[in-house]
Description:
With 192 residues, this protein is of the alpha+beta class. The protein has helices spanning 102-146, 157-180, 182-191; strands at 2-15, 22-30, 36-40, 50-57, 60-71. A hairpin with a 2-residue loop joins strand 4 (50-57) and strand 5. The chain starts with a strand and ends with a helix.
Amino acid sequence: MVSGVIKRVNKKPWTDQRSGKDVILYSFTLEGDDNFYGCGQSPIPAGPGQSVTFEMKGKNCDVSTLRVVETQVAEAAPVSMTASPGDVSSAPRASRGGRMSKDDYWANKEAKDVAKDARYRKVSEPRMALSVATEAAAQVVCAALAADALGFGTVAKSKRLDMLTDYVKAVATDLAQFIHEAPSVIDVMEEE
């Protein structure tokens, strides 16, 4: 009889050499033991953290004798109050009973909110600024064309679209930069 706590469950795609069919082979390891316990094509009726007992059948586990003795829930990791904005992994998790305390819940929520806010500032704000700037740039280029402020010279009609696109990109880039710097520009204007 072998017993221990399952550390890891493995699934490996394999081609059965007798039948030529693709199959999944299952195995697992126990904590403190480097051996792999093969289960053949039988799925393992237990998972990591569960204490099990089973009989060996040759070099493999006899899955029909595998019994879950006890389920262990990992202890919550200590929470660092100086976590970086993107580090949600240090957020508290459920305690031994499977329930999270109110303090742990709010600490976890705060860590997720900080990470979400950092992503918003890094990704969403620049995208929105560029989107607004591109719409405004297209209107500026249209107004410049209507007022004959933009000239194409002797450029062929087939190349004018590329030139218009380049004009919109250049104006959009300038406007996006202005939008990005707007808070500091507004502060300077308020000081004057």
